[in-house]
Amino acid sequence: MEKMTIFCNFASMYQENIHKGFSMAIAWLVLLSTITFTLEKHFCGDVLIDTAIFSKAESCCNLEVLAMAEKKSCCKEEVEVIRGQDSLKKAIFEDLHNDQQIVLVTFYYSYYNLFEGLPVQFIPHKNYSPPLLVTDIQILDQVFII
Question: pTM of the prediction?
């Protein structure tokens, strides 16, 4: 009986952790799809010298090695702006087609009942502690079960 209770507690904890992990994954997906950032690349000739995200790339045109070359032909900077979504659409259940609603409801009910735990059993004597024995009554009365 105790093993069944431990299993039920483990299944419930497992279900909660799956739910939390799935929620966190969806939150990260929404955050990463809506963020906009810039990617800067600095080239000296055809060689990529530095890349930077969210900041300015370091320039190599100040170096003494390249002082002999013409700075105009040497240095080239590329800036890419990667845009995220600007607007998110909130869809409600009624916006879905009838077939999609049926599939969604069937999926929900099949998995909702799959992780349903067993009922918690009431054990009335769980916290009962027997009285302390000062003397062994069976030995005192000389009563033995054969």
Answer: 0.36
Residue 72 CA: distances (Å) to CA of 42, 56, 77, 81:
13, 19, 11, 24
User: Counting Cβ atoms within 10 Å, is residue 50 exposed (0-12), middle (13-18) or buried (19+)?
Assistant: middle
pLDDT of 79-114, one tens digit each?
888 787 777 777 788 888 899 999 999 988 888 777
pLDDT of residue 48: 82
Enter the tokens of residue 71. 């700075």
Look at residue 14 and tell me whether its pLDDT is greater than 70: yes
**The one-letter amino acid at 28:** W
Q: What are the DSSP calls for the chain, one per residue?
A: -HHHHHHHHHHHHHHHHHHHHHHHHHHHHHHHHH--EEEEEEEETTEEEEEEESSPPPPSTTSSTTSSS-HHHHEEEEEEEE---S--PPP-GGGS-HHHHHHHHHHHHHHHHHTPPPPPPP-TTTT--PPPPSS-HHHHHT----
